[in-house]
Design goal:
The complex is a heterodimer of chains A (560) and B (236).
Chain A: H1 2-23, H2 28-32, H3 37-56, E1 59-61, E2 64-66, H4 70-80, H5 82-99, H6 104-127, H7 137-158, H8 162-216, H9 226-240, E3 244-248, E4 253-258, H10 273-281, E5 285-287, E6 304-314, E7 317-327, H11 337-373, H12 377-393, H13 395-414, E8 419-421, H14 422-440, E9 444-450, E10 458-460, H15 464-475, E11 483-492, E12 495-502, E13 508-509, E14 512-513, H16 517-530, E15 535-541, E16 545-553
Parallel strand pairs in A: 9-11
Antiparallel strand pairs in A: 1-2, 3-4, 3-7, 5-6, 6-7, 8-10, 11-12, 12-16, 13-14, 15-16
Chain B: E1 2-7, H1 11-24, E2 27-33, H2 36-46, E3 50-54, H3 62-66, E4 76-81, H4 87-92, E5 97-100, H5 105-121, E6 134-138, E7 143-147, E8 151-157, E9 160-165, E10 169-172, H6 176-182, E11 186-189, E12 192-194, E13 199-204, E14 210-214, E15 219-222, H7 224-234
Classes of the chains: A alpha+beta (560), B alpha/beta (236).
Amino acid sequence: MNILFTLIQEMSVFAVAAYLYSKTPAFRPLIKGGFGPRDIFVIYVFFSGITILGTYLGLPVGGAIANTRAIGAVMAGLLAGPYMGLAVGMTGGLHRYMLGGFTAASCGLSTTAEGLIGGLVWLYLRKKNRQDMTFSFKTAMFTTMVSEIVQMIIIVAVSRPYHDAWALVKVIAFPMITANSIGAGLFVSILKDSKNTIESYGAEFSRKALNIANKTLTILPEGLNEKSAKKLAEVILSETGVGAVAITDKTHVLAFEGIGADHHHPKSPISSEKTLESVTLGRVIFLDGINEHYICSIKDNCPLGSALIVPLIMENEVIGTIKMYEPKNRRFLGFNQSFGEGIAEILSTQLLMAKYEMQKNLLTEAELKLIQAQVNPHFLFNTLNTIGSVLRTDPDKARELIQHLSSFFRNNLKRSSEISTLADEIEHVRSYLIIEEARFSDRLKVSFDIEDRLKGNCIPAFALQPIVENAIKHGISNLLGEGIIKISAKERDGKCVITVEDNAGSFCENGVSAAGIGMNSVDKRIKTSCGEGFGVSVSCDEGELTRAEILLPLKGVNDV
Amino acid sequence: MYRAIIIDDEPYARDELRFMLEKTGLFDIAAEGANAVEGVRLVNSLRPDIIFLDISMPVLNGFEMLSMIEKSIMPYVVFVTAYDEYALKAFEEKALDYLLKPIEDERFRMTLDKIVATLKSGEKPEYNRMPLTKIPCTLKNTIKLIDLKDVEYIRSDITGVHVVTADGEYLTDLTLKVIECRSDLFRCHRQYLVNISAIDRININENLSARLFTRSGREIQVSRRYLKTLKDHLGL
């Protein structure tokens, strides 16, 4: 019983060691996994030390030592894998062997075995994908219990004389198995506690990063300029709580917010060499204020003492930097290098998206210009020809046609905004159709049926014209008999439905009309500006009719 | 005076051209047509010296119309078009000339000179024409285009030229001769052209004539005169 109490007393030493260890940076690799050579060395030294300490703190019992050596070896295996377990176990074992006694060999051997057992459990858990269980009181306790039982068996089997060995085991088995198991359990619990703290720190970082991402989502679509940079700097400043934030492009400071704003002015060229280095190398630079100090290049008594400089990279090219500063009396606390990198990554992605979005808009605009310019030359010259002919027989009608042609072209040229009203679009189409009616005389009849309250409904400019033109080009122009075009606008299921119908039904394949380029681009434009639930759809009945439906949200121009 | 026909789908365009042509005193405008089918009919019945032909027209365009006219009665062609994307092609077709609408007086005079010179020389118009792939048939108020491969046979009688498919019979304005020259259909009788691939079986009569049965079970006469060439053609 005495032995048990002594061993339990010793455990307080291990608890303190575990606590201290969990507070040093050397502990981090054990949480993250993936060790560098330095990490391996530190872990090896620490656990070997624990193992050897277990031996020294042990209680001599009849030429042997009742000890807590097992904890270090098993922990090394359990937390860092079989190689580490084996190495630590062998180190502890060799040390024990050199101390001599009739159990020197068996104890040396069993300590090695204990390290290995810890490692095997680690392997097993990894295979089961339950690495989380390595940091558990129970796992540590049972693993150590099994290791200690194995040790007892080895002592009985290897040590001679057999009688002494048996007598020894009878005395030490119970206290050693109990003390080591509980000790290992406590040891891991302390580490686990520290691990949780560190991880919740990580969660805090993620939350901050997400908040920043959320708030910058609406800022960055305009690209990186002084205005957006200022807003961006404000967001980062308030979310991270650092001393100051600066945003630069490749050469100039775009924004500076926070401490030191009195002498760090936007629009001034970048003066810090470290920032320029970050721009040229595309690398994060962390002046932590301990090993490396931030030295303000503008003012000698600048209160800022540490800085994190993160390049903003878009399509493999640095386009600027984000700089976060802390004053000299404070150091980066809620914060580290990888957090800064994460934010830069998020912002870079957002900038890329903004650029993509802008290009998409440019494309739409270009397409719009194309449609405007795309006045069918056939239409123009045939109309002029018609007017020339009508002029001889009916000068008044010729005048009227010229007026409609002018209004049609004027509309084509002047419309600059993306959004127009249904009434305006109908007017535009009407000029066009009056001319077409004149050209085809008896062969074309047009009717309109537009609900009054839909006239103010908004519609992308020039959305109707290509559809109607299509009906003429692919429909009426392919009819030998009379062509009829019906244009209507109605409300249906909370949407504004504009229908353009012709009675030709040509180019119809299985009820689907081969729509023209104009139609596709109108469909794309409506989907871009109003959403996927809207756009143009075409149905047809071979030789009977083609019906194009334009679905638009029900809203006036002013509601946009 | 030259006999001329105007074919254009826009009435005012026809008016304008008629006005300009009549003013010259060189032409007798025998008729106007509003589409290619009317155009073929008019050429067949009126045998004009020259046609003024719009290119872009409903159903069949001007080039397609030319492919449906018998070589022996092919008139001179002046294409009249609103937009010159077709002008190059018009030249490839070796049209006599082409005019752009609205027609400029200066350009019109040059064309007139060309027309007069060419018609005086008396040489025959020769056009590279696109192959005939479809036969336009007149229904009550529309034109049905029948694919040549759907045709079983074509026969002519006093009421006109009939295109027979598995589905039915349609009247066309094209002549048997044009179709024979411009397609793979085979002449088996003075009044019949048959689509070889539509033949199901042949019964040879004692008097050396024969009867053909098409896939849809229709019967066609083969006259003695054409039986041998038909047999050769089929490798019998």
